[in-house]
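User: I'm putting together a small comparison set for a docking exercise, and I want a reference complex before I start. The sequence is below, and the ligand is pyridoxal-5'-phosphate. Could you produce the 3D structure with the ligand included, as structure tokens?
Assistant: Of course. I'll restate your input first, then give the structure tokens for the complex.
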Amino acid sequence: MFELDKLVRDNIRKLKPYSSARDEYSGEAAVFLDANENPFNAPYNRYPDPRQSALKDQISTIKKVPAENIFLGNGSDEPIDLVYRAFCEPGRDRALAIAPTYGMYRVAADINNIGYDEVALNEDFTFSADKLLAAVSPETKLIFLCSPNNPSANCLDRQEMLKVLRSFNGIVIVDEAYIDFCPQQSLLPLLSEYPNLVIFQTFSKAWGMAGIRLGMAFASPEIIGILSKIKYPYNINVLTLEEAAKQLTREKEKNHWVETLLYERTMLAAKLESLEIVSNIFPSDANFLLVKVDNPRSVYEYLVEEKIIVRDRSNILLCQNCLRITVGTDEENRTLIHALENYLKGKKA
Ligand SMILES: *Cc1c(COP(=O)(O)O)cnc(C)c1O
């Protein structure tokens, strides 16, 4: 049985959150003399809406999820940190994740003094629920899944993820940062079926807005209530709210970017495949490729000299000799391929 009340840390359950002036009154007034703001320099003189109601309504329409199921944070970084602070007692509780996966889950665990356990994916990066569930301990409060997964680039099997959701009585986080690039359906429509499900999405990838720092968490209204209670009151600033609202009216453009990047991904993979130094390109459901090369460090350093930066993942579990390469524009990808061809020529000379 999933019992949210027992899962939440005592101090958080008892917490009476800070009540801001704008919490107490959020309507349209003619004169605001409640928050010690400067009356000049509109619109940035005003504190932002602590509940982000307007933006949540917009996201609600696009994602087909009620606004009460939405939490907005300063990037995905914020909800990653908040789930630890809400559900894990420092020095006692633990989180469990697949490996390899996104590095922030462990960093946030370390910052909060929470134990972090990991279970390797299979050699081909496929995921088996039973293997993961076998590593659950009585202290395990959170499970992190990431689909499509970073850095392996593949979607996790949906049935296996649902098995974890059904079998584990703690919180299961499914990070869907790359879901727009993936043929598999989001788990969003299943929110009401699984009270322990938390889904992360972000404006940083498909929406092209990594610079404004806006992440989304989707979960039951009860879980959203807990995260909202412990966040900084004004965690999303006015500039970010404005830019996100603008971009959300351009969903077609976002979809066009995704299509373009999927096409470029195919082209880039084909060109990489033809290079002698490339021994494997893992199947990708994301906007990056995990590529196995000879001498990854030497390739990486050569590219840096050419002012091209990729991610060296060769020291990560199951990623021996791998570089992670983000799909760029046609021109950027050509520049990369050209540099790799020159690297090869230099080797032979
Ligand atoms: C890029 C990425 C994010 C995005 O993080 P933000 O803080 O929202 O920019 C989240 N999860 C994964 C797995 C990522 O690779």
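The CA atoms of residues 55 and 241 lie 7 Å apart. The first strand starts at residue 70 and ends at 73.
User: Thanks, that's exactly what I needed.
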